[in-house]
Specification:
This protein is mostly beta strands and about 475 residues long. The chain contains three helices and 35 strands. The strands form nine sheets. The chain has a five-stranded mixed beta sheet.
């Protein structure tokens, strides 16, 4: 049987072509010793030396075999070489042993030729292979010498099957003082595989030390290969600081927590800038030092074991001194930052005529840019009650409304549009109105609204409310 397999191996690489000078065909064996339920695999390379493009299709007249190709048809331009993958599946009529499979590669193009090939393959049983070959495996173990316990363990094995034995269900055992796992792989004949062992980790607080990891490959309860490798747990230490601050009425309390997030001892150094004056208003429940280099600092020196956490409280209490200072600063800044660059003042005077009892109201709106910057796109709107009619009138130094909208329910809406207001410029808008009924007592006029663009932002400001007290006068 061993002689048959050797002959099959040699014959499977050598194809028997019917020679056609216009084509060249080469066969590379991927798998030609198979079980009955498996398929043989070949790589077919065809070169086209014809003056026309070729299209090859593979077939066989032997019903013992079922052929599959990828691609189904192989297009080969003239003067070029293309490759397809050929799969040969045995049917139930195929017997154990070595077979010669007659294949026909036909060029489907007009005037195309045919290449005849005979491929040799062997059908055998798993028991026969196990009797002929013993497991022969070589493998390498990839693992960094220094391991960071905070990161997953990057363990990789590279395995090679050195003979024709098809090994399935190889168990992989990984053992060390710090980590371990179990995995498996399949290893076809004469194949190589790389496998990353997932799920390996170490307790992050593992102290630094050297150790050894052993990897075993076991097939059917027998160890077929094993390797050991040394590694070292890295030392690391990181001091984390967290501050929780709370305050009331300029008394600030800071709860400072320091943690040694490491697997060795460390010392936390906490520093807070200070000054001669500031130092008079601070306190802490943990002893600290005053250190003066270029700057004056408060320094806490705190020893920490692995994974240890300590907390202390630091208090700054300024109360009245800081309160007065902050109020002064906030008040000054708020005035200059939040005040409107445009101010609007509205005034009105009511006059009653004795002859017909009609009241006339003169309204003036003063708009001033009190900033050193230009104000753009000014829109002024004013509303007159429904009992009053507006008498548009443009006077020197003023301008008529650009729009007047009258509503029986809402009254009259007046709108002025100004392009710009120069720095510190003032404009006066004036209009007259008359009442539909005789006014007795007080009349309220709503606020005027001014919308404008300042520093590329839309803003708005309102005038004062006014009341008109009707006074009867003789002419």
């Amino acid at each position: 049987m061993q002689c048959i397999l050797v002959v099959a191996l040699v014959l499977s690489v050598i194809a028997i072509p019917s020679v056609l000078s216009a084509y060249s065909l080469e066969v590379d064996v991927v798998e030609d010793t198979i079980l009955r339920h498996e398929r043989a695999v070949y790589r077919i390379s065809i070169s086209n030396f014809e003056e026309h493009d070729a299209r090859f299709q593979v077939s066989t007249n032997d019903p013992t075999w079922v052929l599959y190709t990828d691609p189904n048809r192989l297009d080969i331009p003239t003067g070029e070489t293309r490759t397809l993958t050929l799969y040969v599946d045995p049917t139930e009529d195929a017997f154990f042993g070595t077979h010669g499979v007659d294949l026909k590669f036909k060029d489907l193009a007009d005037g195309g030729g045919i290449i005849n090939k005979k491929l040799v393959l062997t059908i055998t049983s798993g028991d026969v292979i196990r009797k002929q070959y013993e497991p022969a495996v070589s493998f390498d173990l990839k693992l960094p010498y220094e391991l960071d316990p905070r990161q997953p363990i990057p363990l990789r094995i590279e395995v090679r099957n050195r003979n024709w034995l098809n090994m399935t269900g190889i168990e992989i055992y990984v053992d060390s003082p710090h980590f371990g796992t179990q995995d498996s792989l399949d290893l076809p004949p004469l194949s190589e595989k790389t496998k990353d062992i997932a799920g390996l980790s170490v307790d992050p607080l593992t102290p630094p030390e050297e150790a050894e990891v052993r990897v075993r490959l076991i097939l059917d309860g027998e160890t077929i290969a094993q390797l050991t490798k040394n590694y070292k747990i890295q030392e690391y230490t990181t001091v984390k600081q967290n501050t929780e601050e709370s305050g009331f009425f300029f008394k600030t309390t800071k709860a400072i927590t320091v943690t040694n997030d490491g697997n060795i001892e460390n010392t936390a150094i906490v520093t807070i800038p200070t000054s001669l004056v500031k130092a008079l208003f601070v306190s802490s429940d943990l002893a600290y030092d005053h250190v003066k280099t270029d700057d004056r600092m408060l320094v806490w020196t705190i020893p920490l074991s692995s994974n240890e956490t300590k907390e202390f409280v630091y208090v700054e209490n300024y109360r009245i001194i800081i309160l007065l200072l902050v109020l002064f600063i906030v008040g000054g800044i708020s005035y200059f930052v939040f005040r409107s660059p445009v101010i609007v003042v509205k005034e009105a005077v009511g006059v009653t005529k004795k002859d017909d009892g009609v009241s006339l109201i003169k309204v003036r709106i003063f708009i001033k840019n009190r900033s050193a910057r230009m104000v753009r796109d000014i829109q002024v709107t004013d509303k007159v009650p429904s009992l009053v009619d507006v008498i548009p009138q443009e006077t020197p130094g003023s301008m008529a409304p650009s729009k007047i909208a009258v509503s029986k329910k809402s009254g009259t809406l007046l709108k002025w549009n100004l392009d710009i207001l120069e720095p510190y410029e003032e404009r006066v808008l004036t209009y007259r109105s008359k009442s539909k009924l005789k006014i007795i007592g007080r009349v309220s006029l709503p606020q005027s609204k001014v919308r404008f663009s300042f520093r590329d932002k839309e803003r708005a400001v309102f005038s004062n409310n006014i009341e008109i007290v009707e006074r009867f006068r003789d002419r």
